[in-house]
Amino acid sequence: MGRTATVERKTKETEIVASVDLEGSGKANIETGMPFFNHMLDSFSRHGLFDIELQARGDLEVDYHHTVEDVGLALGEAFKKALGDKQGIRRFGEASCPLDETLAKVVIDLSGRPYLSYNVKIRPGRVGSFDTDLPHEFYAAFTNQLGMNLHIDVIRGENPHHIIEACFKAFARAMDMATGFDERISGVLSTKGSL
Ligand SMILES: [Mn+2]
C-alpha cells in the first residue's frame, strides 16, 4: 500500500498543490517560481527518496515570504496525511551531511508535538534572489503542520548556498529514516500507543 497524499492550499496570497509519495524514488516535479527554492526542494525529494509534485503560485512580487511559508505548510500537511497513524515507522531519524566546508546535522522525532530548534548561523543576504533567512520560515511551517520535533544544527560552514543545501540534504535523509519502516516494530512506536 502506497503512502501518498495530495494537499491543496489556496489563500489570497498563494495557491499551492502538493503531492507526496513516501514510497517514491526521488522523482520531483517542482515549480515555486523561485529557482533556488526549486533546487532545494528537488534536493529534498532526491535525497529523501520521496516523490514530490508541487506547483506553487504566490505573490512573489510582494515578498517570497508568503510562498515559502505556505509551501512549508502544504508539504507538512501532505506528509502528515501520507503518514496516517504512523504504524510501524521508526519515528526518530537523524542525518549529518557535508558540503565542502559545511557540516549540517538534523534530528527528527515524528512525535506529534511541534518544536523547532534552528541553530543555523548564516550571513544575512541572498542566494540568487532567495533571502538566507527564508529556510527558517519553511522549516517552522513544516514543523508546525506535521507536528514534529526538528533540530537543525550547522556545526560549521561559511558559504550560504552550502549551508542551506547541506541542511536540506540532512533534513531529507533524516526524514527518510524517520518515516521508514522497521519490520521489528509492531503497531506504533510509543509507550502511549499513539503518536
Ligand atoms: Mn546547490
Structure at a glance:
The chain is 34% helix and 31% strand. 41% of the residues are buried.
Polypeptide structure, described:
- The protein has one domain (4-179): 2-Layer Sandwich (Ribosomal Protein S5, domain 2), CATH 3.30.230.
- Strand 1 and strand 2 form a beta hairpin.
- It has helices at 35-48, 65-83, 134-146, 160-179, and strands at 4-10, 14-21, 28-31, 51-58, 92-99, 102-109, 115-119, 126-127, 130-131, 149-156.
- It is built from four helices and ten strands, in the order E-E-E-H-E-H-E-E-E-E-E-H-E-H.
- The chain is an alpha+beta fold.
- The longest helix is centred in the C-terminal third of the chain and has 20 residues, at 160-179.
- It binds manganese (II) ion.
Question: What is the H-and-E element order?
Answer: EEEHEHEEEEEHEH
Percent helix range:
25-40%
**What is the CA-based Rg, rounded?**
16 Å
User: What is the beta-strand fraction?
Assistant: 25-35%
The first-to-last residue Cα distance is 20 Å
Q: Could you say which small molecules are bound to this protein?
A: manganese (II) ion
CATH homologous superfamily assignment: Imidazole glycerol phosphate dehydratase, domain 1
| Total count of strands | 10
How many domain units?
1
**Annotated CATH topology:** Ribosomal Protein S5, domain 2
Q: Rough shape? A: globular
Largest sheet: 4 strands, mixed
**CATH level 1 name:** Alpha Beta
If strands are numbered along the chain, what order do they take across the biggest sheet?
1-2-4-3
Mean pLDDT: 97
Quickly count the helices: 4
